[in-house]
Amino acid sequence: MNKIGCWNIRGINGLQKQKYVRDWIKNNKLSLFSLIETKVQYAKLDTLQNGLDLRDWRFISNATGHDKARIIIGWDPAIFDVHCLHFTEQWMTCRVLGIHQQIDIIVTMVYGHNTPAARQAIWDYLRIKGGNFASQPWLLMGDFNATQKVSNSKGGDTNWCSHKQDFGVCMQQAELHIVPYRGIKFTWHNGQAGANMIMKKLDWVIGNTAFAKDWPDAYAHFLPRDVSDHSSMVIHLSEDHFHPRPRFRFLNLWLDREDFMPQLARVWSSLFMGPLFTS
């Protein structure tokens, strides 16, 4: 079982949080993961790698120059080969290839901005790539900082403003679907109780039709919150996923053989006992 994780950890410079992340990776047997809202300086990425005790792993981030990394991706090179295709401050898109298994998927890790105007760049990107990646399995996961419907929120402001429709409309236009999930429903909590408590589903795992076809048994698990106000998410990818079979091809050169038509007639007229289709 291959597992990919993502977690809005809200800072990971402290040793205590690094221990929680290290245990999260180990306990869930992750082969690839993303940490978002890390607040790690570009120059300290190597220090983080040592702190997580993942010295043989590979890491990339969306940090440039003196910026802090909003998204960090790590993977076990014995399991996956990862190539970054594109990144901005709100997402990182990679091609993930299996080393020993037939795996070839596009993975986008998302960390949306707090304002609807800034998140518009995400929706535009998904609409464009929804067409570009239509024939290839595409998996997206992360903190989108957005809900899709009224029931995704509990407490706080219940007004459904027009910008709150952006995510759901984008999903339809990009032909993306929510990956089946279990565990925590509201993935973010404001840390308060009683009348002041607010909970929302801001973290999502979604995929396109090609992903659902190739990985029909895939599911996401949203784990209980502990050191972060966000729930971490782990997607389970079965090792016996669907492999598309090559199409039958008729070669015109077969007609050049004098014995082709007689042999074809003989085969079609022969008596066959057993199932019509075999694997």
TrEMBL record:
UniProt superkingdom: Eukaryota
Signal peptide stretch: none
Pfam families: Exo_endo_phos (PF03372)
GO molecular function annotations of the record: catalytic activity
Domain Endonuclease/exonuclease/phosphatase intervals: 7-230
Name used for this protein in its record: Endonuclease/exonuclease/phosphatase domain-containing protein
Organism: Salix udensis
